Amino acid sequence: MTRTGSIALIRNTQSAGAAYLCRGMETTLRHVGLVTTLLNDTEVESGTLAKHRLVLLPCNPDLSPSATQCLQDFTRRGGKLILGLTPTSEMLVLLGLKRLKVRPIEAREMVFTHKALHGLPPRVFLSTRQIVLCKAEPTVRAIAQWRTLQDLSVNDPAAYLAPNGALLTTATVTAGAHMQYAEDRIHLGRLIATLANHFLHDFDLLRFQRRLTEQLSDDEDLVREARPREFEVRALWLPHIPTQNEVALIARQNFNLICPTIGPIAVRAYEHKTFHRPWQLTNLLTECVDQAHRSGLEVFPYVTAWPLPSEEMRRFFDGTGRILRHEPSAAGNPQPAWMCPTHPENQQLLIDAVTKLLDDFGVDGVVLGGFRFPDDTSCVCEGCRQRFAERTERKIGPRPMNLQQRHAVWQNWRHESLTDLLGRLLTACRATNPNAKLALATLPSWDMIPKQFGQDPAGWAPQHLADIFFAMDFTAESETFRGELDHQIKSAAGGARVCAGLGVYSSSSEISSAADLVRQIQIVRELEADGFLLWHSHPAFLEEQFGEGLRAGALRSPAKLPWHPNAPSRPAREHSSVKAPKRRIGLVLPVAEY
Q1: What digits encode the pLDDT tens for the residues 201-259?
Q2: What is the DSSP letter of 236?
Q3: Using the 8-state DSSP alphabet, how is residue 579 labeled?
Q4: Closest CA to 369 of 306, 282, 454
Q5: Which CATH number do you get for residue 424?
Q6: Which domain holds residue 529?
Q7: What pTM, to 2 d.p., does this model score?
Q8: Is 290's pLDDT higher than 90?
Q9: What sign results for the dihedral spanned by CA atoms 35, 39, 44, 48?
Q10: What is the pLDDT of residue 270?
Q11: Number of C-alpha atoms within 13 angstroms, CB side, residue 21?
Q12: Contact 527, 489 (CB under 8 A)
């Protein structure tokens, strides 16, 4: 294999989307056994590129002018560049390409010309909604074309090979579009290895291919030998309400529960009640529930508690004193707009909205996300200050406290407020529909991260303050995932059901292949968790990436939900001291959905 220092990967930390794509490329290279050195903007400027002969830029890294100049010097000295999604015009020029225009296209795969380069994969699955058309110099040639499901004659260039390097794809990122480097890791890894073999004389492509073949063989055995369970939660989170055809596809994939996102439930209910605005999702949700029940699926809409979706609502709740107040930010960064979680009217609004959803649409339950505070200091509105002062005076009295003690009392008050609200919400749901389930999406690392945001799942689960706890343990590291889930199951002590959130396609993780996903599903089953929720973007993309692999073993046959009348009783678990796992899931700032 090539020496460690010969391939560099330039990370992008300027935007969350670009950083996510860079992490996806890193995972792809690790998955296929390609070793790289990670560099940032500053390291590029310091002349570190001189140690390398091949540089990967997974996504337009918004490099500084100085770093861009360093890359230009790098190519003049004979270095090679491999560019990924949405490269700048300056970067394209280094490859002998000139951007002409952007063309809309619904493409699903890049098909390669086999004679263009030895070792190329037949295709790479990469969905896109638009591509960049380029003018190429005579020494630059297209090595792949786009193909669509609707029109097999489409032959727009999908990738280029140049003397100075290569353009992996002409796909470009669109706002809100599904774009990642996880759809086809094996073939994408083969493509990069083929380019490395072309540009680096000491790269052993045959050895790489043998290793990859062995890994694929092991992965195929794992996927094929996985055994399904008869009773478990197989849930699929979706960022939208699926169509009737999508619901039918999900049923064929042998899931038994769908969680379509319908957004901030409380404020939407307030808009409808106060301003008499029709809820635009009414017909879609009604049709979805009807089709799901006919297909044997249960429906738990995924709702968020406190985020405010519009500037109009932010101004309205601000004017009524019901908006969350943050501590002033030293950096002056804009803060997310949330309703105050401790305001009595906001709490009652959430209860009314969730119970109305259960009552009006015949759904089987609700998954509540964002049931927390946005940070570890809010809310500091006048109402919260007054309610905290009253609680402190009632329980502690006039005893003086230092800052550390006061902060601890403050944190306890926040999660006590949410604990009380969660109990009232569960009672209201039971009164509305005794058979409906209340599920709670929680942050990972139950003994660490959630408490910073007012959550206390380790305390709520044993008290059965919700029927199901979906722990969003989004990580690609299987052993880290095992330790966290084991800790959560033991913390629940046989109270509420615990299901694992698997971050197949999330803002903080990707699961790279069907084998990796099956590994995590097998861990869920080995630990006797009650099931899992796949966090993904679209049932069609899930089918393309994982459908065949999942149906080969882990989801080979349908499963009944654990509350089915014929389901066996749950194993008894006693509450005991629980040791925290050695490896934890890190989370800097959670997204509003959980």
Answers
A1: 888 887 777 777 776 677 778 888 888 999 999 999 998 899 999 999 999 999 999 99
A2: E
A3: P
A4: 306
A5: 3.20.20.80
A6: 250-372+417-552
A7: 0.75
A8: yes
A9: negative
A10: 74
A11: 24
A12: yes
